[in-house]
Structure formats: C-alpha cells, structure tokens
Amino acid sequence: QVQLVESGGGLVQPGGSLRLSCVASGGDFSWLVGGWYRQAPGNQRELVADISLSGTTNYADFVKGRFTISRDIDKNTVTLQMNGLIPEDTAMYYCNARSTFMRADEGSWGQGTQVTVSS
Q: What is the pLDDT of residues 65-81, one digit of tens each?
C-alpha cells in the first residue's frame, strides 16, 4: 500500500501562490500516476492535474495556465505549484497515486491539505 503525505496548504489572498507537495512511501512515482484532486464543501472530488509515468501532464480546464504539476523521482515527490489563486480554488486538496490501469478511486490517497483563498 502506498502511503502519501501532503504539505503546503494554507491561507492566501486572491492572486497569491501556494506550492503543495506529496511524498510517497511504499511506492514510486516512476511507475505510478501522480495526481492532485480537490473537494470543496458540497461538491464532488475533482481532478486538478495529474502526471503520467512518461511525465505527460494533464490539467483541468479551470487551472490551465495557473497551476503546474511536476515530480521529482529522486525524492519520490509530486508537486503542485498554484499561481493566480482565486476564491473558487478554496478546497481540500488530495494527492493520489495509482497504477496506470487503475481509476483514481482505486489508488491511494493522502490525508488532504486545506487551501483557502480569501482576502
């Protein structure tokens, strides 16, 4: 079982930036798809971005041009750089790791880190 630990959430003003990190143990992001999802109160969990085994990235339309997902194989970490934050980005953000043939809900999840965008 892959264990994931997220960090980097917090309170930020609109237009600000945050950097979320996810460290994996018991698994390796060189053979796992790493992803970030978010869930706001009353909403379903939704994909923010993911990165494939080959390093191909995929973004939700609502974050394109603002967020960047990356990974460090040596540190077994997936990072989400969030710029130009808006209040609608407020949510709990979850790291996910899965094998290529799995759905996200079949993979492993971190405990979540809260991001709040407010003035």
A: 999 999 999 999 999 99
